[in-house]
Amino acid sequence: MNAKPQGLQALFGGTFDPIHYGHLRPVEALAKQVGLQKVILLPNHVPPHRPQPEASPAQRLEMVKLAIQDNPLFSVDTRELRRDTPSFTLETLSELRQELGEQQPLAFIIGQDSLLSINTWHGWTQLLDKCHLLVCARPGYATHFDAPDMQQWLQQHQVTEPQILSETPSGSIFIGDTPLVNISATEIREQLGLGQACDDLLPRAVYHYIQQQNLYQK
Questions:
Q1: Tens digit of pLDDT for each residue in 167-193?
Q2: What pTM, to 2 d.p., does this model score?
Q3: 45 domain residue, yes or no
Q4: Does some domain include residue 60?
Q5: Contact 50/15 with Cβ under 8 angstroms?
Q6: Do 74 and 39 contact (CB within 8 A), yes or no?
Q7: Which of 48, 118, 144, 163 would you call most buried, defined as having the most Cβ atoms within 10 angstroms of its Cβ?
Q8: Residue 172, domain member (yes or no)
Q9: Structure-derived torsion over alpha carbons of residues 150, 95, 98, 109, reported in degrees to the nearest 10
């Protein structure tokens, strides 16, 4: 039996190799903006669009747990880490939709860069049947599609009133006014490989874990 709908929940996926403030701070701002009750972090196992992570699945999961240990907004879901096949967002959303019920307001958080390439995603036309899309601003990315049909798709589904997201289970796109945090995991790995400190870019507990595990050393 499906549970009674709770407040608006959102998923936020990534390799989190490592998790850092560029992941966490825009999502925290977005949560305040749209009234998110819960953000479920979803570490990917085999990301379809990018190279394999340097840290192991167990290490990346531990870093996520350390990053959110004092923040009740966040929880973590390990289902994608347990897969040996590529993690397709649509499959994960379909699973969660079955578990949460058809009426639960559910969103998926992406960056502006992902929105602009969403038509390359597996089964992308079905995403809004399963969830809302919440978009975080990203430094240096355009705010509209070049292709007229994709821009029309965006305009058709875009909403500017956050309460719509809590009142409906899926189907809308909300572009958040989130801080532009110009931090990348690639930059962090490179700094660590050069022996440079970067404890201001990620939670202290994550930084200590990286040092303890000798991660990202060249």
A1: 999 999 999 999 888 899 999 999 999
A2: 0.92
A3: yes
A4: yes
A5: yes
A6: yes
A7: 118
A8: yes
A9: -50
